[in-house]
Amino acid sequence: MKIYENGEVVEYSFEDEKGRDTLRHSTSHIMAEAVKRLFPDVKLAIGPAIDTGFYYDFDAEPFSREDLDAIEAEMKKILKEGRRFERCTLPRAEAIKLMEDRGEPYKVELINDLPEDAELSFYKQGEDFVDLCAGPHLIDSRYIKHFKLISSSGAYWRGNEKNKMLQRIYGTVFPTKDELDAYLEHLEKIKLIDHNRLGREMKLFTTVDMIGQGLPLFTPKGTRMIMTLQRWIEDLEDNEWGYVRTRTPLMSKSDLFKVSGHWDHYHDGMFIMNEEKDDKETLALRPMTCPFQYCVYMNEQHSYKDLPYRMSETSTLFRNEDSGEMHGLTRVRQFTITEGHIILRPDQAEEELTRCVELANYVMTTLGLQDDVTYRLSKWDPNNTDKYLGDEEYWNSTQEYLRNVMRKNNIKFVEAEGEAAFYGPKIDIQAKNVYGKEDTMITIQLDCAIAEKFGMYYIDQNGNKALPYIIHRTSMGCYERTLAWLIEHYEGKFPTWLCPEQVRVLPISEKYEEYADSVDRQLRAAGIRSTVDARSEKLGFKIREARMDRLPYWLIVGEKEAESGTVSVSSRFEGDEGSKTIAGFISAISEEIRTKEIRREIKK
C-alpha cells in the first residue's frame, strides 16, 4: 500500500502497523463521505483507526442496520468512482472559515483547541468531501476493497457525558476477502461468549432498568461463584500471606476525602449527598477504601518492628461512571474489590512490592488466567501536573522504583503516561475482553505522599516519628470484572471448584428418584454443589441439558446403580467415565476441587 507520509510516497504492508492504521483510517474517510452523501445534514466529528478497524462519530439520528447497509453500498459506489486523498494546509482563520461555511461545528471546535503554531491539514477526496485530518492517508482508494460496517452505538463527544451524544459507526477492513471473512466469523463466535450475553444466558447476573445502569443483580448461581472466590481470597490473604482483615463504612463525611486528596482529584467520580444543603453534613459513598484503612492503622501506635502492617478488606465501592462507558460487569457503578493497603518502612518497599506481584501471579495462575495478561507501568503526565501530588523529582523516583521491581522480576512491561493514581505510579496488570478492549484487572501502587497528609507515622529504631510508605494493591481485583474475565476465558465452562453447580444427578425414571436423592445428600454432605433433575423427561433430554448448562459432571442412576451403590459418571472433560462407587466419586471430585485443578475438555 502506498501512503503519503511527510510529503513523500512510502510503501507499507498490512502487517506494518503504519500500513494497517492508514488503510483503516482512509476507509473511515470513505465511510464519512458516504454518510454525508446519504444524510447531508449530518455533522462530522472524528474518525480514527482502532485495533479492530475504525470508527467515525457523527452528530446524527441513530443509525439502523438498514442504514449501515445503505452506507456500505454507497461506499462501494464511491470506490468504483475512485478517490485520491489530496492533502493541503490552511492558515487558522481560513481553516475555521472553511469548516464554518461547510457547517461543521465539531471541526471548528477541534481547530480552536489546537496550539496556535499547529499545522492545520485537510484531506480532500472527490469533488465535495474535505475533512480536517492530520493523516497520513493512502495515495488513493484502490487498496480499499474488503470492508464491513459492524455496528453503531451512542458515544459522547470527547467522551464526556456533559457533551452531546453522537452516533458512532464501527467498521473493519482487510486486504483480502478471506481475511475479512475470517474476522467476521471470529466476531460471530465472540458474540456468543461475550460475558454480557453469556453471563445472562447462564443466569449468573441480570440488570433491571428500574434499578439503573451499572448496577448488576447477581442470581444465586452468580452469587455462589463470587462467594467461592471471596472465601478463597480471604483465607489465602489471612492465613498464607500475612494480612489482617478490616471492615469499614461504605460512606464518610467529605472531611475524610478532603484530607486524602480525593475531594480535589476525584470529586467528579464520586456519589455525593447533601453537598448543597447547608443544614446537613456532606457525605460521599466511598470510591476506594484507602483513607478508611489509614484510620484503622492510626487507631494505635506502631513501631518499626510492627511493619509491614498488611490490611485487606472485601470492599464495596461506588464510582460515578459515565453512562456511555459502562458495559456488563467490566465497568459498573457499584463493585466489590479485594482491596488492601500495606504500611511499611521505606527499606521494605522492594520486598513487599515483589510479594504483591507474586500474590497476583499466584491468583491468576490458580484461576488459569496468567497467559491473558500484560503489565503496564502507569506514570504521571508531566504536562498536566495539577492532577497529581508531588513534584517531578517525586514522580521520577517512584516510577523508577517500580520500573526496577519489574525488571528484577523479569517482567515485560509497557509504559503509559497519564495512567497513574494522583498520589503515585502503578503496576497495572491488564487483560483484553473478547472485543479487544483492555481493562486493568489487578493494580499495585506505590504511595510515598499520603502518609504525611494524614499524619501517619511509626516509631523508628531511634524512638523518632517516621513517615511510612504505603502500597495500595489488589490481589485479584474487582469480583465483577474477574467474573466477566472468567466467563469469556472459559466460555462458561469453568473449573469444577468455581462452578455454581458441580454435579447433577439424573435418575433414569421416577422409580430411582429416592436413590438419586440419597446420592445428592451424600454429595452435599461432602461440600459438593449438587442437584437432582427429577423432571418427567427422557434421559437423553436431561443429558443434553446438562451439557448445555456446561456442567462438569452428571451422574446417571438406575436399577444397576441403585442395587450396587454406584453412579454412572459422565463429564464434559472425557464423556463417559464409567461406573464408580459413590465414595470413590466423592473422593476424586473433592481432590479436584481442593487442588483447584483445571481439567481441559478432550476433543473427540
Outline:
This protein is an alpha+beta fold. It starts with a strand and ends in a 10-residue tail after the last helix.
Break the fold down into its secondary structure elements and pairings.
Elements: E1 2-5, E2 8-11, H1 17-38, E3 43-44, E4 49-50, E5 53-59, H2 65-81, E6 86-90, H3 92-101, H4 105-113, E7 120-125, E8 129-132, E9 137-138, E10 146-156, E11 165-174, H5 177-193, H6 195-201, E12 205-206, E13 217-218, H7 220-240, E14 244-245, E15 251-253, H8 254-260, H9 262-265, E16 272-273, E17 283-285, H10 290-297, E18 309-318, E19 334-344, H11 349-367, E20 373-379, H12 392-408, E21 413-417, E22 426-432, E23 438-447, H13 450-454, E24 458-459, E25 465-466, E26 469-478, H14 479-490, E27 503-507, H15 513-525, E28 530-532, H16 539-548, E29 553-557, H17 559-564, E30 566-571, E31 575-581, H18 582-594
Parallel strand pairs: 14-18, 20-21, 27-28, 27-29
Antiparallel strand pairs: 1-2, 1-9, 3-5, 4-5, 5-11, 6-7, 7-8, 10-11, 12-13, 15-17, 16-17, 18-19, 19-26, 20-22, 22-23, 23-26, 24-25, 29-30, 30-31
Q: What can you tell me about this protein's structure?
A:
- There is one protein chain.
- With 604 residues, this protein is an alpha+beta fold.
- It has three domains: 2-176, Threonyl-trna Synthetase, Chain A, domain 2 (Threonyl-tRNA Synthetase, Chain A, domain 2); 205-488, 2-Layer Sandwich (BirA Bifunctional Protein, domain 2); 496-594, Rossmann fold.
- The strands form eight sheets. Strands 14-18-19-26-23-22-20-21 form an eight-stranded mixed β-sheet.
- A hairpin with a 2-residue loop joins strand 4 (49-50) and strand 5.
- The longest helix is centred in the first third of the chain and has 22 residues, at 17-38.
- The two termini are 43 Å apart.
- The mean pLDDT is 93.
